[in-house]
Design a protein that fits this description.
The protein has one domain. The chain has a 4-stranded mixed beta sheet, with no helix packed on it. It is built from 3 helices and 4 strands. It starts with a strand and ends in a 6-residue tail after the last strand. By secondary structure, the protein is α+β, with helices and mostly antiparallel strands. Strand 1 (3-7), helix 1 (16-25) and strand 2 (32-38) form a beta-alpha-beta unit. The relative contact order is 0.23. It is elongated. Helices cover 27% and strands 25% of the residues. The chain has helices at 16-25, 44-53, 61-70, and strands spanning 3-7, 32-38, 85-92, 97-104. Helix 2 runs antiparallel to helix 3.
């Protein structure tokens, strides 16, 4: 595949490295994997603050539910440092969420 994306998928598995490898195995040589996961900053107080600052007030309860469920728990950042792949990390929503864009840099077996 040219592009594979996963949002809040890696976190829910016990063997997160295996899930990441499985996602990477779907890519063509020049393919891109997009992984969106919460950061350790995703907590109720931070989510409330972000919502208020962004002008959403109480209208976005799903973000609060996401923050409640994660409560600062996040995928280990180091697992994205994979030999043969380049990774760019882009913080979203004031650092509550991170998007990782992972590209193959040469032929490797994930």
């Amino acid at each position: 595949m040219d592009v594979v994306s996963a949002t809040s998928l890696v976190f829910v598995f016990n063997d997160r490295v295996a899930v990441l490898k499985e996602l990477l195995s779907c890519l063509k040589e020049s393919g891109t994997l997009l992984v969106v996961e919460t950061t350790p900053n995703m907590r109720m107080s931070a989510a409330w603050r972000w919502l208020l600052n962004a002008g959403y007030s109480k209208r976005c309860w799903l973000l609060l539910l996401w923050a409640f469920m994660r409560n600062g728990h996040a995928v280990d950042q180091e697992m994205f440092n994979i030999e043969g792949y380049s990774t760019e990390c882009i913080e979203l929503m004031g650092g509550l969420v991170a998007a990782r864009i992972i590209n193959k840099t040469r032929e490797v077996k994930p």
